[in-house]
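ENTRY TYPE: paired fold submission
RECORD: A
CONTENT: sequence, then structure tokens
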Amino acid sequence: MDEKRTARALSEHAASQRDLATTDGMDNRAFRQRCDRRREADQTRNGRIRVDKEAEEIVQFARRWGLFGGAPAHEIFIQFGMSPTRFAQRLQEILHRAPDR
């Protein structure tokens, strides 16, 4: 009886580990694209683009550090958890989507 329970528990554990492996092994680019699509869908409501808090913070951060030739990589990582390249891409996306004033 205990052997059957142990075998069942081990097989369930193995199945759960396989499921984790497929989600953990997701390609970073695919994951980032999925997050970007989700963010875009959340921001677009009734044909209007909402400016989210993160976008405002990114623009303010870029303005603040722009006077000094840009922020150091460690400051970008501490503030937003992304590389300088990804930060620049995200800033371009925000500025590209911004409505003309």
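RECORD: B
CONTENT: sequence, then structure tokens
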Amino acid sequence: MLALWLFFMLLLFVVEPLVEGRVAASARRHPDAALKRLARMHGVLLLAAAMTLLGAVGGAHGLF
């Protein structure tokens, strides 16, 4: 779970400020592609968070 939080913090505070200008320019040119990419990335991160949560709950209750 710590690795997931570190990954989220890295994305939010390091990666996003570095690529924000390029992503915004790309979104102005191709808004549909930008929204599709954003939705895909959000789904991947949501899946990673859900897997981490299920693993933590399963481990705490002796399922693994």
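NOTES ON RECORD B: The helical segments are 2-29, 31-60. The longest helix spans residues 31-60.
STATUS: closed
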